[in-house]
Amino acid sequence: MQDKFKSGFVALIGRPNVGKSTLLNAMVGEKVAIVSPKPQTTRSRLMGVVKLENAQIVFLDTPGIHKAKNKLGEYMMQSVEAALSGIDALCIMLDVTDVRQQDHTIVKQYTGLSVPVYLLLNKIDRLIPQEILPIIDEFSGYNFKAILPISAIKNDGVAELLSILEEAMPQGPKYFPDDMMTDQPERIIIAELIREKALLYLQEEVPHGVGIEILKIEQLSDSLSEIHATIYCEKDSHKRIIIGKQGSMIKKIGSGARREIETLLGHQVHLDLWVKVRPNWRNSQADLRTLGYTEGN
User: Read out DSSP for 235-280?
Assistant: First the structure.
């Protein structure tokens, strides 16, 4: 007789840039979250649905926990707290190559929840086993259901993690259809893919002040869509960097984003990008709404 179906929600939290979005993509098996080497890449709560033979696990990827310096940062931290509502398990992730006091602060704050809490030691591919054991010892005094060494980028330990989480899930319905991998609207995913390339190619001081607005998505035929988008930044000097010499940087961002969008849509895309300056947009409630950073996103 087939086991009864299990389902539940699992939140992923941790400092910025510890690999939460990379893990989400690895578990879902598709790219549902953008990734970059820069901290605070994830700005909103992202959902990824993992389908197993007798279970469905809905993962909630969250922005890296940090001290908010503007209204965008406040929105990001509200997204973390909102993701913890109604979950069935919590995964706290840290980077084994860069363990900080803030990791202990996060662990102390969230291990008291009334759901099973797991500590994920990510990036173990960069250390030898003897270097990982002291980190396990360092966190073994906290109230974790399990401490699990993984490498999200190498897919090492991911299958074991899913198996352990499946065991922890309650019996429940299939919340989402099998062909649904995320709750992110197509327009939001496209904006995020453009922002990912901006994060990848731009200099260090620019990316945190970049936002993307999708102005138009029009499918011209079965094999071609036209997309118009604006990249917002906060300074004229940043606008010059984003455009680049003779438009070289904006072309590079557009070319990289277009390839990813074509993979997403399954056909050719014509992508037009503009750059506009909106001073201090990260502290403007109206601008945050325009760019999709509102409650429920």
Answer: -HHHHHHHH-GGGHHHHHHHHHHHHHHHHHHTSEEEEEEEEEE-TT
- Sign, CA dihedral 56-62-65-68, equals negative
Dist CA 244 CA 255 (whole Å): 14
Contacts of 101 (CB under 8 A, 6+ apart): none
Report the number of distinct structural domains present in the chain: 2
Look at residues 236, 247, 245 and name the one whose alpha carbon lies nearest to residue 209: 236
Round to whole Å and give the CA distance between 180 and 152.
22
Domain range for 63 is 6-168
Q: What is the CATH number of the domain that holds 17?
A: 3.40.50.300
Of the three residues 118, 136, 168, the one that is the final residue of a domain is 168
H/E segment holding residue 166: helix 158-168
In a domain, 177, yes or no: no
Q: Where do the DSSP E strands lie in 99-186?
A: 117-122, 146-149
Q: List, for residues 138-186, the tens digit of each pLDDT value.
A: 999 999 999 999 999 999 999 999 999 999 999 999 999 998 999 889 9
CATH code, domain carrying 267: 3.30.300.20
